[in-house]
Amino acid sequence: MTTYLLAGGGTAGHVNPLLATADGIAAAEPDATILVLGTKEGLEARLVPQRGYELLTIPRLPFPRRPGRAAVRFPSRFRQAVAQSEIYIEDRKVDVVVGFGGYAAAPAYLAAQRMKRPLALHEANARPGLANRLGARTTRFVGVTFPGTRLPHARVVGMPLRREIEQLDRRVARAEAMAQFGLELEKPTLLVTGGSTGARSINQTVASAVVDILGSGWQVLHITGERSPVDDPGLKGYRILRYCDRMDLAIAAADLAVARSGAATVSEFTAVGLPAVYVPYPVGNGEQRLNARAVVEAGGSALVRDQDFTPHWVSTSLVPLLLDRARVADLAARAATTGMRDGTARMVELIGDAANAKVGSAG
Q: How many CB atoms are closer than 10 A to CB 75?
């Protein structure tokens, strides 16, 4: 029986592929013990126990970006986090460590190296985070979602997806989806989402221009997120939700989406052939623009800068697209050519390769 320690968390972008991989390991190896290393503050504190896995915690340690008290204290606190990770590995007889980035990952990577445990890691974004840049130096088993991700030993495995997305047949599920959201089965649907927390600029633009969108003959399913709600004008064909716990059905209902280009969003949409107008998050290191690059270059989606996504852009660019159903269909076909549904299986295979390899060299 093998014991796995899956490390990562903080945001849905880290937690969801971690949980999908945990489920994949459990399906392939029913007698395995699966532990998760995270923090008490991240989404993993709620989602991991809900999925039935045991959560072990270490302190949340953001890497200090500027001089100050936090920077002075960071080295000693980081060493403590590594030491605690080593204790977990020893006490729980961990055989393999798997990392997904985030605050809990870097201490786990160093602990695995010191304890001479096999290590595999997964990088969700096209531009890797600091923890995975560190971890990739210590292992040859590095899974990435997108081609061109700059990490040593990178192997494209795709995104480990939730089972309901992996198995989704949009045509079969469409009638159930329309009933779920109170939409008309005969009308095409535009899905609008900014991710779990929402996107204020997308929400405001769509809310301002929704009359033009509805006038094109489309209906709108608008998932605003908890932090950036919009007022419901009560227009027929405009369905507003703050939160959606059945994103598989939201995707099944949609013919086109307007969305941020987080790694999970792009991976889920392309896996099922849903084209999108991606509006990358304008803050950060630019990874969202890179996440969407492959599908945009394949002609399967469009990309517009956040500052350019205005009501005027909607009326002059989005509405003409909505009126051209043949072009939307072509986008869908091209989007599907860039997607991968078997990211979970590929990542589980990579972990198996790590477990069976000789420990001690990054290659």
A: 10
